[in-house]
Structures are given as C-alpha cells and as structure tokens.
Design goal:
CATH class of the largest domain: Alpha Beta
Structural class: alpha/beta
CATH architecture of the largest domain: Alpha-Beta Complex
Strand order of the largest sheet: 1-2-3-5-7-10
Pfam families: ECH_1
Distance between the termini: 28 Å
Helix content: 40-55%
Largest sheet: 6 strands, mixed
Bound molecules: acetoacetyl-coenzyme A
Family: Belongs to the enoyl-CoA hydratase/isomerase family.
GO molecular function: 3-hydroxyacyl-CoA dehydratase activity
CATH topology of the largest domain: 2-enoyl-CoA Hydratase, Chain A, domain 1
EC number: 4.2.1.150
Order of helices and strands: EEHEEHHEEHEEHHEHEHHHH
InterPro entries: ClpP/crotonase-like_dom_sf, Enoyl-CoA_hyd/isom_CS, Enoyl-CoA_hydra/iso, Enoyl-CoA_hydra_C
Radius of gyration: 19 Å
Oligomer: single chain
Length: 261
C-alpha cells in the first residue's frame, strides 16, 4: 500500500491514522481521500485492531478542510463527484466496525470538521478551532456537514455555524457537544491513547456491536432501533467474550481474557 499523504501505524490493538500534508495544513485533496479509503479498507480486515485514533500531522491543524486549490476550477459535475468521493470515504469510516477517536490539535475546518464528525469520539486540544466556513467560499459543506453537524449539536446551532461560517474555539465546541473532551495540547495524544486503550480493554465484539446498534438506530424510528438493540444483545450471548466477561465477574477476577470472538 503506497501512501503519500496518510500514515498508518499499529501498536498492539490500537491503530493510528495521520493525515499527513502539513504544508497544506492537511487539506484533503482527492489523492488523500483515496489513500484514507485504502487505510480504512486495511483496518476493516485487521481483527487485531480494537480502536483507532485519527489525527493530523503537526500541531497547527487537524485538517483545514477540503483542498481549495483543487476545488477552485471544478465544474458542477466535478464538484458533485468530489463530494461523493468525500462522502463515500467518510461514510466508510463512520461504518468501520471499530471505534474511531479523532485527536484534534488545531484547525478542524470545513472537511476537517466533517472528518472529525465521521469519527465516534472527538478529543480536542485547547488550541483547536472548529467551523464550517464553506458559505464564505461560495459553497455548501460537501463532506457531510449539512447532515452530521445538526445530528451532533442540534438544528439551530448547526444552522448558525453553517450560515455564519463562524470559527469556534475548543471550549465553545465542548459547550455545544461537538467535542467530548478538551485537554492541553501536550496531553492530547496521551489522552487519546488512554481512551483507546480503555476501549480496547473492553470486549471488542461488544464494543463493535454497540457501535453498529447506535449508528443504525440513529437512522430509524425508536421501535426499529430497539429491535436492533435486542438483536445485538442476543448476539453477544453467542460469543466467547460474553462467557469470559460474566465468568470473570462471578469469579471476582479483574483480569479478563477477551478474544474478540
Ligand atoms: N485547501 C488548500 N490549501 C490550504 C487549505 C485548504 N483548505 N487550508 C490551508 N491551506 C494551505 C494554504 O494555502 C497555505 O499554503 P501556502 O503556504 O502554499 O500558501 C498553507 O496551507 C498554510 O496556510 P495559511 O498560510 O493560510 O495559514 P494561516 O495560519 O494564515 O491560516 C487557516 C490558517 C485560517 C486555517 C487558513 O489556512 C484557512 O482559512 N484555510 C482554509 C479553511 C477553509 O476554508 N476550509 C474549508 C474548505 S472548503 C471545504 O472543506 C468543503 C467541503 O466541505 C468539502
């Protein structure tokens, strides 16, 4: 897998994905999106990875948006195609059957904010800044921002952020529920790794099934959603990890031998 703009590192059960175009503040061009797609495909196949951290190279930016130089001269057909590419890759990330934590050091603007919203959990440094500045460029958000932002922060706040193009600081992003946690910059990666390790120490199969139930349930009515819950709950009882988790409890053992099956 030849990658120029995305790094993939694995350590134990944790994978770290880094968008690596620091000269362009990690802006997402087509090449980078396609490489991210390859990396997600790799993670889908790797049963040893239980949690993923997604970050941007350097401290200044997580991702400063879709690549404006690439978009500038697009026609309508090419613009639609670019949006479809971004949406396809981000949806694949959102549906990855492993939890993904976005570790956001600096700018998460436009496509960068959208990328973070396709992750399950967002941890930001105190220096991080968020926004959907697309309307100031004469475009709409195109990698999920018109849909995911309202689902995360509510309709009114999402409309305000998109219509005004406002850039908000990490503490405001935390206040409106856009990020889960804000930490000093120097603690960002440790915090993300600590959370990834905590997640990886739960039964991986139960974490995966929880993600599937939550994501699928958000798209449908509550009765259908609860039937998904009953389905995955039932499925847990066919797993080694359910037997191990409950046996460990009964035996008052803190060490658990989860096997992701
Ligand atoms: N696309 C392409 N290049 C970008 C970029 C982007 N989104 N953001 C930054 N860069 C490049 C700059 O052009 C600059 O390159 P050069 O050194 O070759 O000139 C380099 O990264 C450093 O950026 P700045 O000199 O601008 O750094 P700054 O500290 O002065 O400003 C910033 C930082 C406020 C983040 C500013 O770079 C900026 O406003 N970037 C664009 C943010 C934006 O509008 N994002 C939304 C894009 S549209 C989108 O994402 C659509 C969608 O939903 C799919």
């Amino acid at each position: 897998m030849e990658l120029n703009n995305v790094l993939l590192e694995k350590e134990g059960n944790i994978a770290m994905v880094t968008i690596n175009r620091p000269k362009a503040l990690n802006a997402l061009n087509s090449e980078t999106l396609k490489e991210l797609d390859l990396v997600i495909a790799n993670l889908e196949e790797d049963d040893s990875i239980y949690a993923v951290i997604l970050t941007g190279a350097g401290e200044k930016a997580f991702v400063a948006g879709a690549d404006i130089t690439e978009m500038k001269d697009l026609n309508a057909i090419q613009g639609r195609k670019f949006s479809i590419l971004g949406n396809k890759v981000f949806r694949r990330l959102e549906n990855l059957e492993k939890p993904v934590i976005a570790a956001i050091s600096g700018f998460a603007l436009g496509g960068g904010c959208e990328l973070s919203m396709a992750c399950d959990i967002r941890i930001a440094s105190e220096k991080a800044k968020f926004g959907q500045p697309e309307t100031g460029l004469g475009i709409t958000p195109g990698f999920g921002g018109t849909q995911r932002l309202a689902r995360i922060v509510g309709l009114g706040k999402a409309k305000e952020l998109i219509y005004t193009g406002a850039i908000i600081k990490a503490d405001e992003a935390y206040r409106i529920g856009l990020v889960n946690k804000v930490v000093p910059l120097e603690e960002l990666m440790n915090e993300a790794k600590a959370m990834a390790n905590t997640i990886a120490n739960q039964a991986p199969v139960a974490v995966t099934l929880s993600k599937i139930a939550i994501n699928r349930g958000m798209q449908v009515d509550i009765d259908t959603a609860l039937s998904y819950e009953a389905e995955v709950f039932g499925e847990c009882f066919s797993t080694h990890d359910q037997k191990e988790g409950m046996t460990a409890f009964v035996e008052k053992r803190s060490e658990k031998n989860f096997q992701n099956k």
